[in-house]
Amino acid sequence: MISRCRFLSTFSANSKPSSSASPTPSATLIGAAKNAPNDDPHRQSYSFPLPGRLGGSMPETGLAHLVDSPSTLSFCFHALKISAKLGLLNGGKQLHARVIKLGHCNFLSLQNQFLSVYMKCKEFNYVCKMFDEMALKNVVSWNTLICGVVQGNCKSAFVRLGFHYFGQMIKMMAPDCITLNALLRASIELSDLGIGRQLHCFILKSGFNSRCFVGSALVDSYAKFALVDEAQSAFDEVLSRDLVLWNVMVSCYALNGLQEKALGVFKLMLLEGVKGDEFTFTSMISSCSVSGSCRLGKQIHCLIIRLSFDLDVLVSSAVVDMYSKNENIEDARNAFNGMPSKNRVSWTTMIVGYGQHGDGKEAMRLLREMIRVYTYPDELALASILSSCGNLSASSEVVQVHAYVVEHGFESFLSIANALISSYSKCGSVGSAFQSFVSVADPNIISWTSLMGAYAFHGLSKKGIEVFEKMLSSNVRPDKVAFLTVLSACAHGGFILEGLHYFNLMINVYQIMPDSEHYTCIIDILGRAGFLDEAVDLLTSLLVEPRSNTLVAFLGACKVHRNEGLTRWASEKLFSMEPNEPGNYSLMSNMYASVGNWFDVARIRKMMRKMCDFKVPGCSWVEVAGKVHTFVSSDTTHPQTVQIYSVLDLLVRLMEEDGVSDMELGNELIPKEFVFLLGC
Question: Are 532 and 540 a contacting pair, CB within 8 Å?
Fold first, then answer.
């Protein structure tokens, strides 16, 4: 048995200095030793098993017997802090047992530390039990419990338990800013605006509304619920504002797409002598990304350079993202190349930018360069890259990224698996999408919905319905999107009874109220099956005004079944709803042309020229050797136009030989200016 002083000196001699900036177990224990008295005539010896990694950091000869003294309390206090930080549950329990044996279990500071350890280790039931048994509690005790429960758990039941304890707290003592800040953030997590408003009332009555810390949380809460007027009111109540509050207000307007108001707050902030930081300029640049205002973005970029904030990786990455979303990929690349240092976010932003602009080859080249400089993509970066490649239908890039995912063991990440399912589906590879789904150990609702959508989009409606049934049998609760996907599959496959069954299931069993998109699918199902009268009855009985896509689906059914009367009725509603949408006029013109009503075709075309400035042409694209080629109707801009139309002419001749009619071929597949080149 060795004395406490010998233990401390032995440990100090055997411990090595750490290069890390964070406090290590050894550093903490040395700090405790410096505060310990050198003589203690009443000390007692105890065997103290150090927790987990704490014990492992000591030489075996340094294990000592802690005594009942202030230094023992100091050691336990610091050791508990480390256990909480590292999440060492067993170590925390061992320390708890030792403290009980020493008779220090009633020290409030230690009890609060034990609450913190168990909370960090997600032992919520144990925390609540210990808290209820505490004879004395201070505001730190209540905050440890409430903040830990509402912020450390994704289950709404536990989060609401935090509000229950808050109700008990206000009966015994006044909460502080930390309590209210945590509860406001919890109301965001619960998506419960009512709780947020009740907290705001309590804050007003308690006089916390003038404090920056609480005011920032209030503004952020209303911003997340898109209530910018309420956020502005909460902001105005704080008279002495700090930089954080200004940043939250700027972010509020930027988040909700109100660029001009965000700029107004930014100018007011500068007038009051508050200099912005990297978060201020990130929010301002992000607002330009959302609104598509590249000109203002360039002005802010100039200010960023002038104030040297371009040296900050976060700000520079936001600048790259702004230029990319404004379809200015060259300036985005210049800003990216000018960054003095790059992190994973900046690389991912630039790669996704190239993917969204159709340059999958350059996106993959950048990804390889990113890996060469030892900046390895994480699951979020890979999922973003896969999504951008999928939106472009760049199948070769998706396969290459998939190979990297398999090689580096990212297959277990659910976000990547879901991105693979979606990307392969958009690239037309339903089989690969299914294989990606099979590789998921525990698919979630997004996985099931992505696979259903893959089958439905490619005309395999029956398989999509089968996937939905398997999802239900796997006890996965469907949401609105899942029901919308299966209803879309039923509409495209002509499964009338199944569609009506799932529609009733959604309302009566799962208590999900349908929105306009669900009604659009049902009207489409009825219309495709020829039940136009039933579709009209449903259309006219809707409590809300039908949207344009609902009327377009109904018009499509009228075209198939050649019902000119209902066509006129629906078209009048559609034109009154969207008088300047050229696609509606094209749809009506084609519908009248299909029944030979050329008078109405001419009338609709005349209306279109009068009401619409231009019609954005639809486009098709094909990927060849990693490059995406885009075409519009009668396109003559491609560098290989002559060769393309030569092949097209050959195909037309072969189809004519097989007896395919001109109506099936379509009108003027080959532009007149190319007829003489092809010898047609």
Answer: no
- Of 468, 537, 457, the residue nearest 491 (C-alpha): 457
**pLDDT score recorded for residue 478:** 93
The amino acid at 210: S
CA-based nearest residue to 138, from 104, 159, 160, 111: 111
Residue type, 71: S
Residue 628 three-state SS:
strand
Give me the pLDDT at residue 612, please: 65
The model's pTM is 0.64
> Taking residues 334-355, what's their average pLDDT?
90
Give yes or no for residue 309 having a pLDDT over 60. yes
Question: How far apart are the C-alpha atoms of 67 and 281, rounded to whole Å?
Answer: 55
What is the per-residue burial (b if ≥16 Cβ within 10 Å, else e) of 36-49? beeebeebeebebe
Instruction: State how far the Cα of 518 lies from the Cα of 531, in Å rounded to an integer.
Output: 17
pLDDT, one tens digit per residue, over 496-517 is 889 999 999 999 999 898 888 8
In sequence order, the β-bridge partners of residue 619 are 632
Cα 168 to Cα 141: distance, rounded to the nearest angstrom = 13
User: Which of left, alpha, beta for 103 (phi over 0: left; psi -120 to 50: alpha)?
Assistant: left
For Cα atoms 423, 619, 333, give the angle at the middle one, nearest 5 degrees: 65
Separation of alpha carbons 64 and 66, rounded Å: 6
pLDDT at 583 over 80: no
User: How far is it, in rounded angstroms, from Cα 534 to Cα 496?
Assistant: 12
Q: Other CB atoms closer than 10 Å to residue 359's CB: what's the count?
A: 19
Please state, in angstroms and as integers, the Cα–Cα distance from residue 199 to each residue in 50, 186, 271, 358, 480, following that order. Answer: 43, 11, 32, 48, 30
3-state class (DSSP) for residue 39: coil
27 exposed, middle or buried (CB, 10 Å; 0-12, 13-18, 19+)? middle
Q: What is the chain's length?
A: 680
pLDDT at 39: 38
Residue 72: its pLDDT value, please? 67
Q: According to the model, what pLDDT value does residue 602 have?
A: 81
Question: CA triplet 376, 382, 384: central angle to 5 degrees?
Answer: 130
Four-point Cα dihedral 439, 443, 446, 448, nearest 10: 80
514 vs 70, higher pLDDT: 514
Characterise 397 by phi-psi region: left (phi > 0), alpha (psi -120 to 50), beta (else): alpha
Find the mean pLDDT for residues 28-57.
38
**Nearest residue to 195 (alpha-carbon basis) of 159, 231, 151:** 159
